[in-house]
Amino acid sequence: MATALLTIPHKVAPIVHFVRHAQGYHNLCVANQSMHDPSLTPLGEAQCYQLCQDFPYHSSVDLLVASPLRRTLYTTLLGFQPELKRGLIIIALPEAQELADVPCDTGSSVKILEEEFRDHAIDFSLVEEDWTSNKGKWAADAAIVEKRAREVRQWLKTRPEKNIVLVTHGGTGWVNTEFRSYFFTNESGDNASIVETMASRQRRKGSETPLSQTEQRELKAAKQNLWDESGYFLQSKV
After folding, report:
1. Nearest CA to 102 among 21, 189, 35, 165?
2. Alpha-carbon torsion 74, 77, 78, 80, what sign?
3. 95 within 8 A of 152, measured Cβ to Cβ
4. Which terminus of the chain, N or C, has fewer Cβ atoms within 10 Å?
5. DSSP assigned state of 235
6. Main-chain dihedrals φ then ψ at residue 99, nearest 5 degrees
7. Distance between CA 18 and CA 61 in Å, rounded?
8. How far apart are the C-alpha atoms of 26 and 47, rounded to whole Å?
């Protein structure tokens, strides 16, 4: 049985390296989005090996976390071999799953995952039996997705580790296996807001001034209106 997300209070919040998964078969064409929980393509596997070479923080990472979809789990296994060889395990975090309810973004049952990855160091204890239902807390609804994302940030912020890798889903604006590093702000409240580190921005050749909190809220509202108008999230799934 899955357990609730545990939080451990501490004074210094960690740095989190967000990583988008490598190329999956669903990335090849729109028709492939009908594939259930697809794995990585050969190119995707090659991208993982390149990620392993390019990622500069292997020696300092002390926690690996991944969305429980197959493409993110395999990206973590292949892209972060130095950490696994040091004895780290991967925590599968269902709240970090994809946000849509199409077949390619719907995960596999816990039993299937435990069998497929039985020879690998992955902890599935946080993955609930209904995590693939696309209903309730797992619905493809904008407000619920936002709540899940906030819960992920809150969980990460209160972890005792100092450098965390989270392999998840990037979508628009993130290429496969792209990684960006973030720190938590000191603002009050429970939003657990994050800001990209300067080193991460420079690595991406970014020199523009980051958006202010007001600009971020305005951008979020504009995106929300676009999602509502396009029907991207299915409100009936709540």
Report:
1. 35
2. positive
3. yes
4. N
5. G
6. -105, -5
7. 12
8. 16
The alpha-helical segments, DSSP class H, found in the chain are 42-54, 70-79, 81-85, 110-116, 142-157, 198-203, 213-230
What residue type is assigned to position 62 of the chain?
D
* DSSP label of 50: H
pTM of the model: 0.83
Which DSSP state fits 24? Answer: B
| Nearest alpha-carbon partner for 73 in 11, 115, 130 | 115
Residue 63 and residue 88 in contact, taking contact as beta carbons nearer than 8 Å:
yes
User: Do residues 6 and 160 touch, judged by C-beta distance below 8 A?
Assistant: no
Give CA separation, 97 vs 43, 134, 156, in Å. Answer: 22, 11, 15
Neighbouring residues of 39: CB distance < 8 A, sequence distance ≥ 6: 24, 25, 70, 71, 74
**pLDDT tens-digit series, residues 24-82:** 999 999 999 999 999 999 999 999 999 999 999 999 999 999 999 999 999 999 999 99
